[in-house]
Design a protein that fits this description.
Blueprint (H helix, E strand, L loop, with lengths): L2 E2 L28 E8 L6 E8 L2 E3 L4 E2 L2 E5 L8 H6 L4 E2 L4 E4 L2 E4 L2 H23 L5 H4 L7 E3 L5 E2 L6 E2 L4 E9 L5 E9 L14 H23 L3 E2 L5 H21 L24 H8 L8 H19 L2 H14 L7 E2 L2 E2 L3 H12 L3 H14 L8
Parallel strand pairs: 2-9, 6-10, 10-14, 15-17
Antiparallel strand pairs: 1-15, 2-3, 4-5, 5-6, 6-7, 8-9, 11-12, 13-14, 16-17
Helix pairs in contact: 2-4, 4-5, 4-8, 5-7, 5-8, 7-8, 7-10, 8-9, 9-10
The structure holds zinc ion.
The site of zinc ion has 5 residues, from helix 4 and helix 5.
């Protein structure tokens, strides 16, 4: 049976208060502004509270700019879905800043958190453009500046007897809204959930993890949206749906690494997870069978994703060029729709070997990179590596 790509669309994841920053022309960017945020300082899980340059804010007081806005609602977003559907009930975080030298300094934790959230999403935007100047998400994503970054998102799931609030997590949540005239728009949400059990870096402040989430937005708009527009179908002669879900997570783990340059960034929040990109991983027969199985209960997209990300990390390390790998993966995201190994007759049908072929074709324009990728894919793809 063939499924429509749309159907497997993955929801994959007060000291100085009045600063009139840009009162006259809201369409003009404020330009560079120095704000104290929580940011990586190099090395494994080392963060500092220090000034960073934010480049795309239009309104500092509302943490709003080219890449979106930081918002908050005290209401439960699960039980009040109209808040996400309409945006009504989402308010700017009450930002309080003071000026110290040339830098703005948040005066309380919420303000510091909100500034850090904006900073991490901006970093994802700028990183994408730096990797490939042709990919300007502000031009590709409709209403990109309407991206909603929800601070301390409150969502209580489950039925009455078993209700629990989501915590210790972060998520990219593409919400499709269809108007009565049939026109659809996609609202891009990022949720930073409250921290409950994590002793390390809260998810919303872990810039690697927020950029993992940002990668889901990139994949949404470089792969899913164009695929849906072309009415691409998803075949079932190969484990395409599971492979798609896993490679989405793998891209995300790798782009998270690129943002912080720490392959172990995931462990800063979850120390016991097997998500360190620098630890080589292989597609074992067990992992392959879980991907190939039709069962959802044994399948965790993050498992195969972690293998894919570790492979990309090793390619980048071997070449000494993670920028090249990052750029090639952005290309791969959109090329999955057109590669002969992954798509034919408007139908997607692929496993990880087919993705590797599509990726090698991109890297082969740089002879050495293509060869290195081939060797590393053969080493870690397990049964998928035969014939590469
Ligand atoms: Zn993810």
């Amino acid at each position: 049976m063939i499924k429509n790509l749309k159907k497997i669309f993955i929801i994959g994841l007060g000291i100085l208060s009045c600063i009139c920053f840009l009162s006259c022309n809201k369409s003009t960017l404020v330009g560079h502004v120095s704000i104290t945020v929580i940011q990586p300082m190099g090395g494994h899980c080392r963060y500092s509270v220090s000034p960073a340059t934010i480049q795309t804010l239009d309104n500092l007081q509302e943490m709003r700019g080219k890449v979106g806005r930081v918002l908050f609602s005290s209401k439960d977003l699960e039980q009040n879905p109209e808040i996400l559907n309409t945006g009504k009930g989402l308010e700017p975080v009450d930002i309080e800043l003071f000026k110290s030298g040339n830098a703005y300094v948040p005066a309380n934790l919420d303000s510091l958190f909100a500034a850090s959230l904006y900073y991490s999403i901006e970093l994802g935007y700028l990183q994408t453009k730096r990797l490939d100047p042709n990919i300007d998400l502000a031009a590709i994503v409709p209403n990109f500046s309407d991206t909603r970054i929800i601070h301390r998102a409150k969502r209580i799931t489950g039925t009455n007897g078993n209700r629990s609030e989501i915590s210790d997590n972060a998520e990219y949540y593409p919400l499709k809204m269809t108007a009565s005239n049939g026109v659809s728009t996609l609202l891009n949400y990022f949720f930073s959930y409250p921290t409950d059990h994590i002793n390390g870096i809260p998810l919303g402040l872990n810039i690697g993890i927020m950029n993992h989430e940002f990668s889901h937005l990139i994949f949404q708009h470089l792969f899913y949206e164009p695929g849906i527009k072309r009415n691409m179908q998803v075949g079932e002669s190969k484990p395409t749906s599971h492979t798609l879900a896993a490679v989405d997570e793998g891209f995300a783990d790798y782009f998270g690494f690129l943002a912080v340059k720490d392959p172990g960034y995931f462990l800063c929040s979850f120390p016991t997870e097997n998500r360190d990109l620098a630890r080589p991983k292989i597609f074992t027969p067990e992992i392959v069978s879980r991907i190939e199985s039709n069962s959802e209960s044994n399948f965790d997209s993050h498992e195969g994703g972690a293998v894919w990300a570790a492979i990309q990390y090793e390619i980048g390390q071997t070449l000494g060029d993670h920028q090249l790998v990052g750029k090639s993966l952005l290309r791969l995201m959109s090329n999955i729709l057109i590669c002969s190994s992954t798509s034919s007759n408007n139908t997607l049908n692929f496993n990880f070997a087919d993705l590797a072929r599509c990726h090698q074709a991109i890297l082969s324009t740089d002879g050495r990179a293509g060869q290195v990728a081939q060797q590393i894919y053969r080493k870690y793809l397990g049964s998928y590596g035969a014939g590469l």
